[in-house]
Amino acid sequence: MTTKKILVIDDEDGIREIIQICLEAAAGWDVFTAASGSEGLATAQAEQPDAILLDVMMPDMDGPTTFRQLQAHAATKHIPTILLTAKAKISEQQQFIDLGVTGVITKPFKAQDLVNQICGILNWKK
């Protein structure tokens, strides 16, 4: 079995670091990070990750805009994308699902639960 590659796109350094450490330590996945939507687009095209964790609220290019850009490129439109959001209302989450994202994980999340949440959304075995 090959190691999963995950791209984390979030403008907050601390969030990126926590997610990267958690996914590498708990699941053994290779984790790439990007601090902005535009950096994330370039990294997704170059690295071809198995999944993307994408923050909703970012300056310059927000998560939904970044997701639409990912969907617009043949090289990245197949990559499952999970949004990370502080918006916990079901109606808000439904709007994101309606965009076509694979899933939504609400912040704050427990680091130890993150791998299980990602595996559950993507139907991956741990």
UniProtKB/TrEMBL annotation:
Q: Does the keyword Cell inner membrane apply?
A: no
Gene Ontology terms, MF aspect: DNA binding
Keywords, A to Z, come to: DNA-binding, Phosphoprotein
On this chain, the residues bearing 4-aspartylphosphate are: 55
Gene Ontology biological-process entries: phosphorelay signal transduction system
**Signal peptide start-end:** none
Any idea where the Response regulatory domain is?
5-122
According to UniProt, the name of this protein is Response regulator with CheY-like receiver, AAA-type ATPase, and DNA-binding domains
Give the taxonomic lineage as stored in the record: Bacteria, Bacillati, Cyanobacteriota, Cyanophyceae, Coleofasciculales
